């Protein structure tokens, strides 16, 4: 258990995933967590009722939550970050640790927006953190102490796996694990739709698809075998899997995945550049 005061500036999907993950892992007490958003009171009440966390519903309470926090999680959309961080600037105090989950926003841009040097962790988590199966990339600025680095790693390791990467690689992490759950949900949507069109009942199509994805991921983890080797074991020569994989190859599925992931990484860079232009 870490007895630190955690403030979530932004209370959307990613903030909820981290909060739920930290509480379920027993790493944080709901009473040590305060969350706020810009205007959506119904959403805040829902979060309070669901997790017993504290909420800050007006400007005075938001300012107090920020002042009292040991750790401030920056959880707003990139388009809202410049305005939100400028507002943060006058209430920050030495020793506070900032953890950003904002795609594209560089550490240098955060430092410029808050107008001072504080310990910062730029992270790229994913929504599977909700169930303790997140995958997070993290970079720190030089102001982060060893103890602060350890604290950040402990928090993200409590809700999944975490790897420290050079900041130049955070956009690559975004393309792999930040956006990655959506690629797999997309694949699952296509598999379920096709299964139904092949005649299976919707609930059977869904159950078989979900278990197949879960089983495949666990096979890679638990056998330690490479995905290519596990694929080979499923593919009987001249059989059904070979027919399917040949169809994927003809349609350049690998190329499509590559292009999509490169585009995601590039988009993270563009969002960062757009943000930087809006600062200067
Ligand atoms: N969703 C994901 O899978 C992932 C998201 N991220 C990053 O996480 C960040 C948040 O994404 P996500 O949770 O999906 O977004 P959401 O839209 O779900 O949540 C954004 C939150 O920010 C709040 N907000 C915006 N501006 C302000 C402000 N000035 N003051 C207070 N609160 C504010 C919003 O409040 P209100 O509703 O009142 O406007 C809302 O609660 C993004 O930067 C994204 O890049 C990173 C990894 C994965
Ligand atoms: O789509 C986005 O921009 C965010 C960042 C990674 C996942 N969701």
Structural commentary:
- It catalyses: L-proline + NADP(+) = (S)-1-pyrroline-5-carboxylate + NADPH + 2 H(+); L-proline + NAD(+) = (S)-1-pyrroline-5-carboxylate + NADH + 2 H(+).
- Belongs to the pyrroline-5-carboxylate reductase family.
- By secondary structure, this protein is an alpha/beta fold.
- It has 2 domains: 6-173, 3-Layer(aba) Sandwich (Rossmann fold), CATH 3.40.50.720; 178-264, ProC C-terminal domain-like fold, CATH 1.10.3730.
- The protein contains 12 helices and 8 strands.
- An 8-stranded mixed sheet has the order 3-2-1-4-5-6-7-8, with helices on both faces.
- Helix 4 (78-88) packs parallel to helix 12 and helix 7 (170-178) packs across helix 12.
- The chain is elongated, with a radius of gyration of 21 Å.
- The two termini are 41 Å apart.
- The relative contact order is 0.10.
- Bound molecules: NADPH dihydro-nicotinamide-adenine-dinucleotide phosphate and (2S)-3,4-dihydro-2H-pyrrole-2-carboxylic acid (A1CAB).
- The site of (2S)-3,4-dihydro-2H-pyrrole-2-carboxylic acid (A1CAB) has 4 residues, from helix 7.
Blueprint (SSEs and pairs):
Layout: E1 6-9, H1 13-24, E2 33-36, H2 41-51, E3 54-55, H3 59-68, E4 71-74, H4 78-88, E5 97-100, H5 107-114, E6 120-124, E7 134-140, H6 146-158, E8 160-164, H7 170-178, H8 180-197, H9 202-223, H10 227-234, H11 240-250, H12 253-279
Parallel strand pairs: 1-2, 1-4, 2-3, 4-5, 5-6, 7-8
Antiparallel strand pairs: 6-7
Helix pairs in contact: 4-12, 7-12, 8-9
């Amino acid at each position: 258990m870490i007895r630190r005061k955690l403030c979530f500036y932004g209370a959307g999907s990613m903030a909820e995933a981290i909060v739920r993950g930290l509480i379920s892992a027993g790493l944080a007490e709901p009473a040590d967590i305060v969350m706020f958003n810009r205007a959506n009171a119904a959403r805040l009440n829902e979060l309070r009722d669901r997790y017993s966390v504290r909420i800050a519903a007006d400007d005075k309470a938001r300012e107090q939550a920020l002042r009292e926090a040991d750790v401030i999680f920056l959880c707003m959309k990139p388009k809202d970050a410049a305005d939100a961080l400028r507002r943060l600037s006058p209430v920050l105090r030495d020793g506070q640790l900032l953890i950003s989950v904002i795609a594209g926003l560089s550490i240098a841009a955060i430092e410029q927006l808050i107008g001072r040097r504080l310990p910062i962790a730029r992270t790229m988590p994913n929504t599977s953190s909700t169930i303790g199966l997140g995958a997070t990339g993290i970079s720190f600025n030089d102001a982060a102490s060893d103890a602060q680095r350890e604290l950040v790693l402990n928090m993200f390791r409590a809700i999944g796996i975490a790897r420290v990467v050079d900041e130049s690689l955070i956009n690559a992490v975004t393309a792999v694990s930040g956006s990655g759950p959506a690629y797999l949900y997309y694949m699952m949507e296509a598999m379920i739709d096709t299964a139904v069109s092949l005649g299976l009942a919707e609930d059977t199509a869904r159950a078989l698809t979900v278990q197949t994805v879960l089983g495949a991921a666990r096979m890679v983890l638990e056998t330690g075998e490479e995905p290519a080797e596990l694929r080979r074991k499923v593919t009987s020569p001249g059989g059904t899997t070979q027919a399917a994989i040949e169809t994927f190859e003809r349609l350049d599925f690998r190329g499509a995945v590559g292009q999509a992931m490169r585009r995601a990484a590039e988009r993270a860079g563009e969002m960062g550049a757009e943000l930087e232009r809006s600062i200067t």
